Amino acid sequence: MKTLTSLTALFIASLAFAGPIEDAQTPEKKGLAIAIAADKADEGWEDWSADAEMTLKNRHGQSSSRRMRMQALEQSDDGDKRLIVFDSPRDVKGTAFLVFTHKTGNDDQWLYLPALKRVKRIASNNKSGPFVGSEFAYEDLSSQEVEKYKYKYVDEETVAGLSCYVVERYPVDRKSGYTKHVAWIDKQEFRNIKTEYYDRKGSKLKTFTGLDYKAYGENYWRADRFEMVNHQTGKSTTLTWKGYKFTRGLRESNFNSARLKNVR
């Protein structure tokens, strides 16, 4: 059992707050209430899988594409487990990435590189690095557990025609590559419409946008496209998703670091 941190205690205490988000007394409590509401809006899916095309574009507009598969397993008492496997092109085919997200403490992450024929554990101080050359960092691929951040409600704005809460999130992990996120969460379905990431110097580094959301299964919302733009390098990465499937009966054995070499 994990040690109960002060942040986790705050989270548990906040669950007693049963009134509307607007009744929160401080920007910090309101930000936390929004985060909890967003987390609860995406509970109960058990597992899901999807295919994706990753398009990397440099500052000159030149692009390259990769195809990958992802599957996720929901955990009732901890963060989600996620597995990504690349199918093409040939130089990345067979590359596999596994992450066990935890509500508190460091996440566990492993990367299998076919060229090296070995599984590499990602150290906690390397999780701000780029994932296979994309504009997504390793830490971006973990599920965004409520306990991982402190929060502050900022404002309400309209983005892409949707009325959104604007919330600042401050990573608790001192080894995070970010000082803060600014997230736009739509007020109706609590989807992540846009997030700005600020680097360790406090400068805006990247912007994530979730596009073309659709409801699946028991009203689980997923975006058909992710876009991550790096404002400092001019590079971008787009993930185009298709074939979402929920409640496939995936098991713990499907998410085993010892079996990454044999994932197909």
Descriptive account of the structure:
With 264 residues, the chain is mainly beta. It has a single domain, classed as Clam (outer membrane lipoprotein receptor (LolB), chain A). It is built from 2 helices and 13 strands; from the N terminus they run H-H-E-E-E-E-E-E-E-E-E-E-E-E-E. Strands 6-5-4-3-2-1-13-12-11-10-9-8-7 form a 13-stranded antiparallel beta sheet, with helices on one face. It is globular. 28% of the residues are buried.
Task: Briefly characterize the structure.
The protein has 264 residues and is mainly beta.
What is this structure's SSE topology?
Blueprint: H1 6-14, H2 27-41, E1 47-57, E2 63-73, E3 81-88, E4 96-100, E5 108-113, E6 118-121, E7 149-159, E8 162-171, E9 180-186, E10 192-198, E11 204-216, E12 220-230, E13 236-246
Antiparallel strand pairs: 1-2, 1-13, 2-3, 3-4, 4-5, 5-6, 7-8, 8-9, 9-10, 10-11, 11-12, 12-13
Spatial order of strands in the largest sheet: 6-5-4-3-2-1-13-12-11-10-9-8-7
The largest sheet, given as strand count, sense and whether it forms a barrel, is: 13 strands, antiparallel
**What structural category do the secondary elements indicate?**
mainly beta
CATH class: Mainly Beta
Helix content: under 10%
Order of helices and strands: HHEEEEEEEEEEEEE
Q: How many domains, in number, for the residues?
A: 1
Rg is 18 Å
CATH architecture: Clam
What share of the residues does DSSP label as strand, in percent? 35-45%
CATH fold descriptor: outer membrane lipoprotein receptor (LolB), chain A
Shape designation? globular
